[in-house]
Specification:
441 residues, 19 strands, alpha/beta, 22% strand, 5-stranded mixed β-barrel
Length: 441
């Protein structure tokens, strides 16, 4: 009888790619099921970045333990960031789990499942050296969108972040493997390619050859079939003149930059161990705006960092009004054990953090509304992603919206549109998050 594997992938898209590589190793011998109640073995790829992510991971594992105790589930395998971070403690917390695999152990998933099927336990936490031989994936994104990981790990060592301790040092993939993967995806019809890493602008710094993000994107844009080439998670100090020139030169590189600044007050930035002082941010934002008026800038900030005062938050408000980011994610600081920030004085209570978060979101909401309203009467190519039964409208994204994090464009039309296809849409109404438009025949 074929063993049925249930799969849940939590956290970021980098985690999702690890899950896809595990699925590729299992697809020939095992059957995948969506419902945990139908599974013989449950594979849970976890996130442990912040408290909310850890809680979601633990709750998912506990649900699987209940299925193992009272249902048909025979085995549980937990992979990724949570076991990598909490080895022995996790074993005690969830004793019904049969196998734990660290972040670099996805290539051992078949051995783990074979051991669990035989009734044995399995643990593996191998060295985090990047392994280029594992590039086959079972894609879980909806065509024509696919993510490509260009590097592993992180060297930035921000004082609040656990990623370097979980994922290891920064390791770039060799360009030939990345370009080969993009070409393969494009041949299979995936024409929106999204490059990701913990810090995409750090790409190539650890390689001996003359390569960086700009040169990689220059070559990737030439691959037949790539319609939209998008890059996410670009650190401010890595936005170079060369990168902007390449992005402007190729029509199929979308003019969209995701730049996590985390704060704008130099006092807080220094405590965060960030390498983007306010003067640098001023210069970079102006440089992007000067390069092309079509650039969309998304960023993220953290409020409630230890020692942050009201005047630091007011400084942030003022800078957001000055920078006029199109999109902004706002997060409350999460006190993570094992990080320098967790031991800092001046920890702020959760209620005050949420107040500051809501205040910054309100500030950004009016900015995003203004930026979106400036798009009214303009026509964009929209990738249709689905149909909303409630409103009777199709929805999708233009180059100005990244999947999962940005808003949608809802399309008014009497015609039947095809998901995964691109259509010209004229924006007719704009809100802080979403836009409305009508199909142009």
């Amino acid at each position: 009888m074929t063993v049925k594997i249930g799969v849940i992938s939590l956290g970021c898209v980098k985690n999702r790619i690890d899950t896809e590589e595990m699925l590729a190793q299992l697809q020939d011998e095992y059957e995948f099921v969506q419902d945990m109640q139908d599974a013989d073995i449950m594979l849970i790829n976890t996130c442990a970045f912040i408290s909310d992510a850890k809680e979601e991971s633990i709750n998912t594992i506990l649900e699987a333990e209940q299925q193992k105790k009272f249902g048909k589930l025979k085995g549980i395998i937990v992979t990724g960031c949570l076991p990598e971070r909490y080895h022995e403690r996790l074993k005690q917390m969830v004793p019904r789990v049969d196998a734990f695999l660290g972040t670099a152990a996805y290539k051992e998933i078949r051995r783990a499942i074979e051991s669990v099927v035989e009734g044995s336990r399995f643990d593996s936490y191998p060295d985090k050296a990047i392994d280029e031989s594992f590039s086959r994936r079972v894609l879980t994104t909806v065509p024509p969108t696919a993510y490509v990981k260009i590097a592993e790990g992180c060297d930035n060592c921000c004082s609040y972040c656990v990623i370097p301790s979980i994922r290891g040092k920064y390791q770039s993939r060799k360009p030939e493997y990345i370009l080969e993967e993009i070409a393969s995806l494009a041949r299979d019809g995936y024409n929106e390619i999204i490059l990701i890493a913990q810090d995409t602008t750090g790409y190539g710094k650890d390689l001996n050859e003359e390569i960086n993000l700009a040169k990689l994107m220059d070559r990737a844009a030439e691959i037949p079939g790539v319609k939209w080439l998008r890059v996410l998670y670009s650190y401010p100090n890595g936005i170079t003149d060369e990168l902007l020139e390449v992005m402007c030169r190729h029509d199929n590189i979308v003019k969209y930059l995701d730049i996590p600044i985390q704060h704008t007050d130099d006092e807080i930035l220094q405590k965060m161990h960030r390498r983007n002082p306010s003067k640098l941010l001023d210069d970079i934002v102006q440089k992007i705006r000067d390069a092309s008026e079509d650039f969309i800038i998304r960023s993220t900030v953290i409020v409630g960092f230890p020692g942050e005062k009201r005047e630091n938050v007011i400084h942030l408000y003022q800078d957001l009004k000055k920078y006029q980011f199109d999109r902004l994610g706002v997060f409350s600081y999460s006190q993570e054990e094992g990080t320098p920030a967790a031991e800092m004085e001046g920890q702020i209570d959760e209620e005050e953090k949420e107040f500051r978060r809501d205040s910054v979101l309100n500030t950004q909401s009016s900015i995003s509304l203004d930026r979106n309203q400036a798009r009214v009467d303009k026509t964009y190519e929209v990738l249709v992603e689905g149909y909303d039964e409630h409103s009777g409208l199709y929805y999708g994204r233009s180059y100005a919206e990244a999947p999962d994090v940005d808003g949608k464009i809802f399309v008014k039309t009497k015609e039947a549109l095809e998901e995964g296809k691109y259509y010209p849409v004229k924006i007719t109404m704009a809100y802080s998050y979403d836009c409305m438009g009508e199909l142009i025949k």
